[in-house]
Request: fold
Amino acid sequence: MNGVHDMGGMDGFGKVEPELNEPMFHAEWEARVLAMVRAMGAAGAFNIDTSRFYREMLPPHVYLSSSYYRKWLLGLEDLLIDKGYMAASEVAAGHAVETAKPLKHGKFGLDDVERIMVRGKFGRPAPAPAKFKPGDHVRAKNIHPATHTRLPRYVRGHVGVIERDHGCQVFPDSAATESGENPQWLYTVVFDGAELWGPDADPTVKISIDAFEPYLEAA
Amino acid sequence: MTGHDHDHHDHDHSELSETELRVRALETVLTEKGYVDPAALDAIIQAYETKIGPHNGAQVVAKAWSDPAFKRSLLDDATKAVSTLGHVSRVGDHLVAVENTPQRHNMVVCTLCSCYPWEMLGLPPVWYKAAPYRSRAVKDPRGVLADFGVSLPKDTEIRVWDSTAETRFLVLPMRPEGTDGWSEQQLAELVTRDSMIGTGFPKTPDAQS
Reply:
């Protein structure tokens, strides 16, 4: 979706302001939100792409004015309500009223913690040979999916070069809408600064994205 | 308002307080429904606070600086290379290490959300997840570096890696001068988080005290 989350190349957000000796969390609730998101995902309530999609669907003014973990909280609430794991009235009341919906992997308990500290694997067997190889020129398609996609707007329609092949991986565009893993080839594609930002761009800059094969066409 | 809110977050207290109440309500609902054990949530937080952090990445960088064979295998297949180090084996399948040289400087961003090599660097800092960095890193990386007080020679190539898939990138910074004969442990002390994102340099032997 063409949301405000797709920020590459936007102007007007001001300077980057690093915080000296930044703490891991700025408030205790941030840590609780992180833990709840990780736990409910691991219990099977959603995959990582669906959770990203729900944050992207927050209204633009909410997305832009909310802190990072506030976005995680709001996205988690919306997701769990939409998928039938709880009712909005329950969160408002602060207590469970309705019957629980069974989780694919069951209740998240202490024994599950170690498992989520190891990063997931997204590689999958290839359903078809790769269409592209390193060195190939490709154009990022001019597509505008209304749902979740990992093709940022700033590269669409532009030509780059395949640099690396990462094998086949879960396709976020399908996984986000729970339409299956639909594995696709994944490549690092490099663009010249001037190709993306015009003739005034810094000539020393190159930008790469990791692009799934359905995002690309031969150029 | 609880009256015990000593948090110094940038938001006003009413918003923070509303958020706190909401988080508590959500956790109560999830617990009462039998979805999560609150003790497991505590354990997750503790694991993040103690097991991950830039010290993991720093050890990998220091080893690459010290051991040419490890460096080659790291650049060739970082996932495999890192999996040989027992203490940082949580990295999953998709880690890529990219090397800074006098000719080329690498910088990592996630314009779409906040993808970051947690297992190597810990949880990302606020600036990495915020709009100014996400919007400008791909268009004006030199301007962003200036915000960090970093400047590069005019003819150095800058390569920005936008983390748009599950690949995670670790920048291998250049080894500081004046560190001949240093142990891996000494070298790791010089490796900063930002130097592994590409928005900073390692500390120099002089600056380290």
